[in-house]
């Protein structure tokens, strides 16, 4: 059994997220509590991860909510980091810190932390990459219901997005830890 489906291990696992996000919050300052959303995330994930999906229609709305929330949390984390990086360099309007701009390989501040290939990989899943606009575009697909069917919204999608959220947390944590 994996941590994802273990009723006892999963809450313990989320405590690590709490510690990592609190550490990142301390580093960026500004009274930002990145861990405050973990309780809501936990509540959203419980029925999704503990479901056997025998009747996937029953959990589709729950998967949609969790998937969209994870996209929003990932964007919030990236935006918080970017504002921290730019605070002494220039004013960044909230409207210009879009997910596409944050994950752009032209965003040197983010490239310095994630690396160009890493940003392209994240962009492939959350947005699109390059002139040909290839990618899964999960964030916009979910937000605007573009190219999705009910059967696409399942616990596997939630797990993929949760993995990407974990990847972003780990990268930012490592950046501050090594700093």
Model description:
The chain has 8 helices and no strands. It has helices at residues 9-28, 38-49, 56-86, 99-102, 108-114, 116-126, 138-144, 155-178. Helix 1 (9-28) packs across helix 8, helix 2 (38-49) runs antiparallel to helix 3 (56-86) and helix 3 (56-86) crosses helix 7. The chain is globular, with a radius of gyration of 17 Å.
Put the structure in a nutshell.
The chain has helices at 9-28, 38-49, 56-86, 99-102, 108-114, 116-126, 138-144, 155-178. By secondary structure, it is an all-alpha fold. The radius of gyration is 17 Å and the shape is globular.
The geometry reads as globular
Spans of at least 5 consecutive residues with low confidence? none
* CA-CA gap between termini: 36 Å
What's the Cα radius of gyration? 17 Å
| Biggest β-sheet description | none
Please trace the helix and strand order, writing H or E for each element.
Answer: HHHHHHHH
Number of DSSP-assigned strands: 0
User: What is the count of helical runs?
Assistant: 8
Approximately what portion of the residues adopt beta-strand conformation? Answer: under 5%
**How much helix is in the residues?**
55-70%
SSE layout:
Layout: H1 9-28, H2 38-49, H3 56-86, H4 99-102, H5 108-114, H6 116-126, H7 138-144, H8 155-178
């Amino acid at each position: 059994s994996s941590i994802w489906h273990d009723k006892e291990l999963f809450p313990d696992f989320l405590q690590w997220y709490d510690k990592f996000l609190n550490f990142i919050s301390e580093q960026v300052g500004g009274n930002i509590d990145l861990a405050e959303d973990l309780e809501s995330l936990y509540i959203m994930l419980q029925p999704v991860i503990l479901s056997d999906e025998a009747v996937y229609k029953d959990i589709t709305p729950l998967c949609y909510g969790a998937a969209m929330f994870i996209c929003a949390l990932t964007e919030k984390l990236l935006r918080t980091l970017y504002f921290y990086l730019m605070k002494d360099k220039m004013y960044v309007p909230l409207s210009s810190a879009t997910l596409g701009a944050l994950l752009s390989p032209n965003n040197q501040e983010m490239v310095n932390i994630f690396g160009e290939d890493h940003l392209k990989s994240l962009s492939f899943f959350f947005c699109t990459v390059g002139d040909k606009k290839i990618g899964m575009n999960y964030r916009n697909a979910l937000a605007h219901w573009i190219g999705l069917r009910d059967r696409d919204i399942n616990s596997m999608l939630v797990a993929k997005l949760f993995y990407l959220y974990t990847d972003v947390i780990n990268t930012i944590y490592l950046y501050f830890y090594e700093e």
